[in-house]
Amino acid sequence: MSKKDKPGRHQRMLAAYGFGLFSLPRYREIRGEGWQIRHHLPSMSEGYLTPSFVEGNRFVLYQGRRPWMSTGLFEVESHAFHVHAAHGLVVVAGLGMGMYAFAACAKPQVERVVVVERDAAVIAMFSAAAGLETWPDRHKLIIVQADALDAALAERLTEPCQGRAADYFYADIWPLTPDATAPPQAGAMVRALAPKAAGWWGQELNFGQWCLERRRPIDGAALADYAALCGVPIPADAGYAAFCRDVAAVNHALIAPRPPRRRPWWRRFFGAGSENLNSGAAAPPDGPAP
Ligand SMILES: C[S@@+](CC[C@H](N)C(=O)[O-])C[C@H]1O[C@@H](n2cnc3c(N)ncnc32)[C@H](O)[C@@H]1O
């Protein structure tokens, strides 16, 4: 599912937010050590910005039986802003299927893309699965095998980045969103690398959740506060704030604060006194951290 598959959706996003979808490499199925990329047939699906729809053919990256990502619309819509933000020297944490790397390399505004990937098997599978030898802009891509959360990350990247700070840093090292560890981990990587601008996968959902917990409107002012709190220089504008608002509306059920669970009525009558019975009665809402 890409810009070419969905020209109408691409144009609507461009008009509403100032950025749209992007093209993907041509994938093929492959098995690596502990990982594989499998083809999936069309099925009902949910987008990031688009509610339920019929998803066409897609490829899914698995580690064992655990899905990490796919080439479906959810992934393309959730990467779209970060592809738009890519320019100059781009540093990326998490190779996955190389979907972002391909789209960033394809942009004329991007000079070099340095991807940090922890897993050697992912790197080994990627070039064959994504047809790297056919990428017109493959000369821009450098892959470094390293843990993006390692304290020595900046040192590992000095040579591939030619001693320069990244113009855009994009972190995508999580299989699910919203993930409460993503904002602090993205903040830690930003502190290590000091990029000029940065973002992480799923940041719109973390941000939307933060706003809903505080009953704040999802707008540019809240986004500036949230980016400062996380220590991530998100290159936001009015179009991006509108995108965050719309993504939060589509995913409201995922990010709305959960109401405290009521104690079942029958506990009052049948020995409700024990601490254990009460322990789940008023689950606190998710923590206040970014
Ligand atoms: C969801 S995929 C990335 C998808 C990618 N954005 C794309 O467009 O194809 C996440 C990747 O992050 C890698 N990863 C997870 N933790 C990591 C870490 N600490 N450092 C580097 N890579 C990591 C995983 O092995 C996986 O390849």
From TrEMBL:
Protein name: Spermidine synthase
Organism field: mine drainage metagenome
Lineage of the organism: unclassified sequences, metagenomes, ecological metagenomes
